[in-house]
Amino acid sequence: MGRRRSSTFSIKRRATEGLVFDEFGFAQTKRKDQKLQHRCHDYSYPQLNARRVKELCELLSYWNGSSFICRSQIERFMRMGIPPALRGRVWKCLLNIDKLRESSAFNYQKCLDEIRGPLVDLGVSEYGIISAIATLNDTENDLGSNQLPSRCPPDLAYSSADVTIFRQIALDLQRSFPTHRTLMGESPEAIEGQAKLFRVLIAYAKYNPKIGYSQGMSYIAAVLLMHLSEEEAFWALGVLLEKPKYLSELFDLSGEKIQHQAMVFHQFFKHRKPQLSKHIEDVRVSSIHFVMPWFLTLFTSLPCWDSVLAIWDLIMLHGLSAVFRTGLTIIQLLESRLMNLTDEAAVLPLLLRVPVDVSQHCVLLPALWSTEVQEWEIKCMNSLVLEETEGHHLGKMEKPIPPPLPTKVKEQEKSVDGPKLEAKNSVRKDSSVSGVKNVFTRLVRMAQCYLLDKDCQSGDSKPSPSHGCSARRRSSKASRTTSSITQSQIRAKRSQKGVSQQGSVSQTRGTLPGSTPDSDGLVKDSRPEPAAFRRMGSGPVGRVARRRSSLPPRVESLRLLRTRTPQSPSPSPSSPAQTLAHQRRKTALSRELPSRCHCLNKTTNPLRNTQESQLI
Amino acid sequence: MAYAYLFKYIIIGDTGVGKSCLLLQFTDKRFQPVHDLTIGVEFGARMITIDGKQIKLQIWDTAGQESFRSITRSYYRGAAGALLVYDITRRDTFNHLTTWLEDARQHSNSNMVIMLIGNKSDLESRREVKKEEGEAFAREHGLIFMETSAKTASNVEEAFINTAKEIYEKIQEGVFDINNEANGIKIGPQHATTNSTLSGSQGGQQAGGGCC
User: SMART domains of this UniProt entry (chain B) (predicted)?
Assistant: First the structure.
């Protein structure tokens, strides 16, 4: 599909201001302003034909969010391109906002009525944001000069915290999509748009004070308001920010969550693109620097709005994993350019202002669809990060993890000269392969612990007979994979975790259970390692790994893993408290893994399934 | 473009004090009240001339919101100069200077030149922080001080250039180890090892904004 100028479509003019808006409502600026307004107005998204549109409407009319068929159908439509006019309905269905609204005791309109009191007392109206900012500044100054930083006279309906949050939101309204028709300038449409955004954000801060308001949310709410009614946008924001599937692990008052997710992305990136991630590290760009703006505004800074919306479609369907997937896709598309840049001041701007040629729909979306990211992959990376941060907190008791690249390989790489390009490449490949193996080995250990834990608990969920059978038949030839951490180090980390982890944390973030300290304070590994490795070959992770086996390094790691020797059986957790903690984790895991396998099995082709069963 | 030195700057301060507007005024010579929120970091670059030498300023404009503070800290590394900005119409942005300064001192190299900037000097009628207070704070903490207006461009050039002069002087005195890039200074391709005194000719305006 070729590019088209959006002028062939519905362009709206705002005569009084002499502005022209494109079909998605973004102002088309004069050439001299283009540097500031980075939006591209050439869209390349595909158009759905009338028959398909009708089919999509039908699908939405009998929508059932828990139906696998519905979800796979909608994914099919997403590949073809959701028509802009139906996007709001699609999002509403996928987020299931009616369910949240019905089940919540919170009443949006009532909340707005309650907010009205403080706003009137403050002399602030959402219909005059500029004067509201000035008034709120003055009030804040007065509160400060009265030496009452946290308290106000009791007869007032607002607190100083209210003033701060009102002011912050008011300040950000004009800085979120400042060139969009519904938010730009002083037209009645923009005044109404800003007022809506103000109300949604204020109500959300009241609805969920734990998150309150933090920068980035105004962008998300504004996009929702472009497609949904005010109250629907509010509930959609609620679903997005609170469901673990979506963004509940991104926003908090302290900024810790986004930092954690940046580390998870870093691990994920390192695992998928070892060479590129090393290069980016070498030029001293940290993942947080580009992950934060990408994730917190859900890629709305990309210049091509049709791409942004298509990415959002996918996020609405798959949640946070689609955010990771998009991040990885963008980096992959920029790979050759990034590899040629050696300065952080060149690398970071490229990542922050992704060029049009990469972000246009006809380039970015096909790449995004062909980039596969599984939810379990991200959860495993999450566990890796948790393990590392906790390992880090343990202090100097443990030896530092040796660098992933064997120095020998590095030296080889240096010694190879210009014309021997092929040789150089192969060496590079080797080093990156060992890096992948490293991460993969650790990843496998995580997965192994998940599976094993599930295995240990007899009542909760029993392993299928075929798994056990395959385990017995598995060859007993010993072969070790390369690993960056010694067994004892891993055990020590695990033991710390096993004791300290709370059930609730493990449910959301995943843990690494399995070992218990003995009476001497030494660490005993309670996991029957070989059994778990055997499961690697036959269990869900193994299946997934086989399915993904087009990637040579992983196959290699897996092949090595499968040939490990069985050893001792597993003792059960020692104390009742530990048993309880184990049970909690297992429940969380047993809920997660089968569902993942279920989905994966469905997507795996029948022939491969047959092959697998024969193998088993 | 060839330059003798490259200085890395960082702009810090509370949200809404006008950091991005200052940067835009300096790099593009325009005031754009309506711009996107800074989430994370933005960049700008411009060439200036000091003592007949071309100096490239690479400026990192950071997010001011409290929850991003710990992330902003990672940008201090390798900065030669910092512009610490408050809003003269908002007392609390002035009150928060101490915590900003603590952050800056703790996470940057000890030689980093810090310029204190009271922005929005055009809003005299709504002034809440007296110029003397800013001066006193700067004196107390050993900072350079200036009141600016990103809107009228008053003192904006001077703020950036005076900071560069201070850094340049420190280089001449041998305070900065210019071979260590962690100090936020890079020697450019045009560098000539002359030891002439600082004459302080003001900035050429060759380069626009955007990035390198």
Answer: RAB (SM00175), RAN (SM00176), RAS (SM00173), RHO (SM00174)
- Pick from B27, B29, B35, B37 the residue to mutate for testing the A interface (most A CBs within 10 Å): B37
- Is A144 within 8 Å of B95 when comparing Cβ atoms? yes
CA A332 to chain centre: 17
Measured between alpha carbons, how far apart are the two ends of chain B, in Å? 9
Is residue A166 classed as helix, strand or coil in its secondary structure? helix
Mean pLDDT, residues A226-247: 96
Residue B168 has pLDDT above 70, yes or no: yes
Chain A residues whose beta carbon lies within 8 Å of the beta carbon of residue B68:
215, 255, 292
φ, ψ of residue A484 in degrees (nearest 5):
-85, -15
Task: Identify whether the C-beta of residue A20 lies closer than 8 Å to the C-beta of residue A26.
Answer: no
Inspect the interface and report whether the beta carbons of B34 and A184 lie closer than 8 Å: yes
User: Is residue B163 helix, strand or coil?
Assistant: helix
The interface predicted TM-score (ipTM) is: 0.87
Facing residue for A349 by CB, picked from B36, B63, B211: B211
Q: Does residue A345 have a pLDDT over 80?
A: yes
Give, for A378, the enclosing helix (H) or strand (E).
helix A375-393
CB environment A33-68: b (16+ within 10 A), e (fewer): eeebbbbbbbbbbbebeeeebebbeebbeebeeeee
Nearest to B67 among A36, A144, A214 (CB): A214
Answer for the pair B80, B167: CB distance below 8 angstroms, yes or no: yes
Tell if the CB–CB gap between B40 and A171 is shorter than 8 Å. Answer: no
- Lowest mean pLDDT: which of A82-86, A375-379, B74-78? B74-78
Write down the H helix ranges in chain B: 19-28, 69-76, 91-95, 97-107, 131-141, 156-173
CB spacing of B65 vs A144 below 8 angstroms: no
Work out the average pLDDT over A520-547: 41
Residue-by-residue DSSP string for A50-62: HHHHHHHHHHHHT
Instruction: Answer whether B65 sits within 8 Å of A215, measured CB to CB.
Output: yes
- Among A524, A450, A410, which residue's Cα sits nearest to residue A402? A410
Give B117→chain A minimum CA distance, Å: 19
Q: How far is A296 from chain B (nearest CA, A)?
A: 8
pLDDT for residue A547 is more than 80: no
Residues of A in Cβ contact (< 8 Å) with B89: 137, 141
Give burial (CB, 10 Å; 0-12/13-18/19+) of B109.
Answer: middle
Classify A370 as helix, strand or coil: helix
Q: CA separation (Å) from A136 to A168, A279, B89?
A: 9, 46, 12
Q: Which residue has the tokens 């005993």?
A: A524
**Those residues with Cβ within 8 angstroms of residue B58's Cβ, 6 or more apart along the chain or in another chain:** A345, B6, B7, B8, B9, B43, B45, B212
Do B5 and B188 touch, CB atoms closer than 8 A? yes
Q: Residue B40 and residue A289: Cβ atoms within 8 Å?
A: yes
* Integer CA distances (angstroms), A321 to A152, A263, A324, A524, in order: 44, 15, 5, 35
Beta bridge partners, B115, equal: B83, B144
Rounded Cα–Cα distance for residues A271 and A121 (Å): 55
Residues sharing a CB contact under 8 Å with residue A66, sequence separation 6 or more, in sequence order: none
The pLDDT tens digits for A557-606 are 444 444 443 444 444 444 544 544 455 544 444 444 444 444 444 444 44
Q: Which domains does chain B have, with CATH numbers?
A: 3-185 (3.40.50.300)
Integer angstrom CA distances of residue A139 from A132, A317, B67: 10, 43, 23
Global pTM reads 0.73
SS3 A172: helix
- Tell how far CA A196 is from the center of its chain: 27
Residue A27 CB coordination number (10 Å) = 22
